[in-house]
Design a protein that fits this description.
heterotrimer; A alpha+beta (332); B alpha/beta (372); C alpha+beta (94); A: alpha+beta; 60s Ribosomal Protein L30, Chain: A; Phosphoribosyl-aminoimidazole Synthetase, Chain A, domain 2; 9 helices; B: alpha/beta; Rossmann fold; 4-stranded parallel beta sheet; 16 helices; globular
């Protein structure tokens, strides 16, 4: 079995072969194959530009892998700003000794994920570092998209806006946590990792009045909503029983004493919508399998500015806090 | 039962919670005076906060959050010892959950981990066996914490380690006992506690009989309740009924899991491996006699406190001068009576035990204080 | 004080280990602390990787019955008191 060696990042022949046989082969497109020092791009009007670095253990998990996240994550950041994803850069930092086959599986998965939006990888970089310098593989991707719907912002929430979540929450975080060493929970749960552009494009093309969108990645639902409540200086009130959560995620939370609202997602987004358009938005979301159980979970009020309030099914309320520190199993 | 969810659903059913709330309102009208109920256990504090139960109760029912959070009551000198152990060469320090966040006198285990110490939070103590076997050249030390619920798991681990003749797995025992802490609170003549919600899972192990002397001596009802919202609400209803009928008994609301005598096997395993310390210092409550356990003499060779004593600091560290956690734990003061509450003492930099973990009352007040 | 979740025993393995399930999530637990014999289908409480006690299903179902009766009784009481209030209403027009 072939392994990645330091020479694969050395700038010589081995590196050329790696780039040609692996990256060019799978990411193939005209701009990339030109192999210039920089990709020259044609873009009309306003663009959105974003970057993110990816590290996840394990590299492969139920429902996805690091390659899929590295593409979907950056594309989703563009989509959340109302931008059609066009171009990506992609840098690999590889630990010496990573099996070639592992890297190839990840690259193929990136290619498959790119096909879902039509975005292209147009430039890249490869570094190989000595064993122990990184944990197997780090990937950085930056993305450029054409802004189709402007004026989306965390600052734009208004009283009476409706809050929608695109699917059941917490699947990715619960899935990763369950597979972590020492916890080892078995379930059929798979990560929600997905490229959101197709559904976002449908919402935009049907003129839904969206005030803000955000994919609920690290920090989960609670981080997004707290940020919105503070940025827009409004109160967000949620009906706890309307927040979709699947049984396995609930089970993992029960076992570890955690809250699903804090769990990371990789293909779940939150929307703040003009109340007149809420039902139409739900109807559109339900057409896509990745958001077939989208739900209205709450609304924007002026009750306690800057805070997120959860209402229980029996009429009590509490604040939904922003997650703090490392997620650790609770013992008491 | 059709599925395991039913066991949760019965005890989280919204209509049952509301019906219990109405019933409590009715019954509380007959009370001769307001009731201060201590929920001894951090798990109950968590339930009350998470499910917003205080909002479903009349103002005449007040909760006093008790000392039953093993993370909160851990004195700084013991955390300092954990840090001393973690800093030894060739050492892996193991502990449970959010213990690693709690600050000692100068540092915390999270900080030490960032500085390069090998510190691992465990989900199950059994994993210590595997870690010790995989690292034969390293000293693996289990920093054991918890009340009676968690003690038998440590006992089981000690017995397995001894049986497998693991020479490199050691124990730093910080297991504490519920009844002495309750006595320490009640023996303060100024305490104002009228009744107790008894711990759920401590009682699964010990049985409900351990509270009988408390109910009798202080004439306070003790109702052992489960951790679900229906359990806590029903427990409160039973306490009110006892008060209205002038009874002070131990009752078990959590009868699906708790018996009078508890889990004999677990009790025997604790007795076999550990014995009671003369005294132990509790953060917030100070020194309490016979309130904690240590490794038994037969296992002295596994006792990190003995084996590595030359590395361990042993200076008692006083609670912060301005901290009034002791009074709060006795129901004499509220968190906002404290001059450092929310200013010098916050969840991110706690001075006192009640601010340390999410089950502490100051921490809960800080986060839920100006409640909706 | 400690987190503990009702789970169903679905398999029993060697060395006193069982597989338990909670809402579709399975994990290994030690049976070292169990005094009674446990069987597949039993409900147990799990704390940090150990089964610590059985849950009496019949007792739980008994509670369910009591709660259901209580809800009916409370609803009935509320209905009556509403009728009473209505009857006592002075400016009632027929």
């Amino acid at each position: 079995m072939k392994h990645i060696q330091l020479s694969h990042g050395g700038g010589g022949e081995e590196m050329d072969v790696l780039i040609r046989d692996l990256f060019y082969r799978h990411f193939s497109n005209e701009i990339l194959l030109r192999s210039e020092d920089a990709a020259v791009l044609e873009v009309n009007g306003k663009i959105a530009f974003t970057t993110d670095s990816y590290t996840v253990t394990p590299l492969f998990f139920n429902g996805g892998d690091m390659g899929k996240i590295a593409v979907a994550g950056t594309l989703n950041d563009l989509a959340m700003m109302g931008a059609r994803p066009l171009y990506l850069s992609c840098a690999f930092i590889i630990e010496e000794g990573l099996p070639y086959e592992t890297l190839e599986r990840i690259v193929v998965s990136m290619k498959d994920e790119l096909a879902k939006s039509g975005a292209k990888i147009v430039c890249g970089d490869t570094k190989v570092v000595p064993k122990g310098s990184v944990d197997q593989l780090f990937i950085n991707t930056s993305g450029i998209g054409e802004v189709v719907l402007s004026a989306l912002s965390a600052h734009h929430l208004q009283q009476d806006d409706i809050i929608i979540v695109s699917r059941d929450i917490g699947a990715h975080g619960a899935c990763i946590l369950a597979s972590r060493e020492g916890i080892e929970l078995q379930s059929a749960l798979s990560s929600d990792c997905a490229t959101l552009w197709p559904v976002v494009e449908a919402l935009i093309s049907e003129n839904i009045s969206i005030r803000a969108m955000r994919d609920a990645t690290r920090g989960g639902l609670s981080a997004v909503l707290n940020e919105w409540a503070i940025s827009s200086d409004v109160c967000i009130e949620l009906e706890e029983k309307n927040i979709p959560i699947c049984d396995e995620v609930r089970g993992i939370c029960e076992l570890l004493g955690m809250e699903p609202y804090d769990f990371a997602n990789e293909g779940t987004f939150i929307l703040a919508i003009d109340p007149c358009d809420a039902l139409r938005a739900i109807e559109i979301l339900h057409r896509f399998s990745m958001s077939s159980n989208a739900a209205i979970i709450g609304n924007v009020t002026s009750h306690k500015a800057g805070r997120v309030i959860l209402r229980s099914a029996w009429g009590s309320t509490r604040y939904l806090e922003r997650p703090k520190g490392e997620l650790l199993p609770r013992i008491c | 039962m059709q599925d395991d969810k039913a066991l949760f659903d019965i005890f989280r059913h919204p209509q049952t919670i509301q019906a219990l709330s109405r019933k409590i309102y009715q019954e509380a009208l007959k009370l001769s005076q307001p009731l201060k109920i201590m929920e001894v256990c951090g798990g109950h504090t968590h339930t009350i906060m998470k499910y917003g139960l205080k909002q479903l109760l009349p103002d005449t029912i007040e909760f006093i959050h008790g000392p039953g959070c093993p993370v909160c009551i851990m004195p700084k000198e013991r955390i300092d010892q954990a840090i001393d152990l973690a800093r030894m060469r060739n050492t892996i320090l193991l502990t449970l959950g959010d213990m690693i966040r709690v600050p000692g006198s100068e540092s915390s285990l999270v900080e030490e981990r960032a500085r390069g110490c090998d510190i691992r939070p465990l989900y199950s103590p059994m994993d210590a066996l595997k870690i010790a076997a995989e690292n034969p050249t390293k000293k693996v030390i289990f920093f054991a914490i918890g009340f009676e619920t968690t003690t038998p798991m440590t006992a089981a681990l000690i017995l397995r380690a001894d049986n497998e003749k693991l020479h490199n797995l050691f124990f730093h025992i910080n297991h504490v006992l519920v009844p002495p802490a309750v006595h320490a609170i009640m023996d303060d003549p100024q305490n104002r506690i009228d009744a107790f919600i008894g711990p759920s899972h401590v009682s699964v192990i010990t049985g409900s009989k351990i509270y009988e002397p408390i109910a009798k001596q202080y004439e306070t009802p003790v109702v052992v309740s489960g951790f679900e919202p229906v359990d806590v609400m029903e427990g409160i209803l039973q306490i009110i009924a006892q008060k209205n009928e002038n009874r002070s008994e131990v009752e078990v609301q959590y009868s699906r899991a708790v018996t009078r005598d508890g889990n004999h096997k677990a009790q025997a395993m604790i007795e076999q491996t550990m014995n009671v310390r003369d005294t132990f210092r509790w953060r917030g409550l100070g020194d309490i006699e016979h309130s904690a356990l240590q490794l038994g003499e037969n296992y002295a060779h596994l006792d990190a406190e003995a084996v590595f004593s030359q590395f361990l600091s042993n200076e008692p560290i006083d609670d912060h001068k301005l901290c009034i956690c002791g009074s709060i734990l006795k129901g004499l003061a509220k968190p906002n009576d404290c001059t450092v509450f929310g200013t010098a003492c916050t969840p991110n930099s706690p001075l006192g035990s009640c601010m340390v973990s999410s089950e502490g009352s100051c921490n809960a007040y800080y986060r839920y204080g100006n409640v909706v | 004080m400690c987190l503990s979740i009702p789970s169903k025993i679905v398999e029993i393995e060697e060395d006193n280990i069982a597989i338990v399930e909670t809402m579709g999530v399975r994990r290994k637990v030690s049976l070292d602390l169990m005094a009674d014999v446990v069987a597949i289908g039993d409900y147990v409480l799990i704390h940090i990787g150990f089964a610590m006690g059985k849950i009496d299903e019949e007792d739980a179902l008994e509670s369910l019955k009591i709660y259901e009766e209580m809800i009916i009784a409370m609803d009935e009481e509320e209905r009556r008191s509403l009728i009473e209030q209505d009857d006592n209403c002075s400016n009632r027009s027929i």
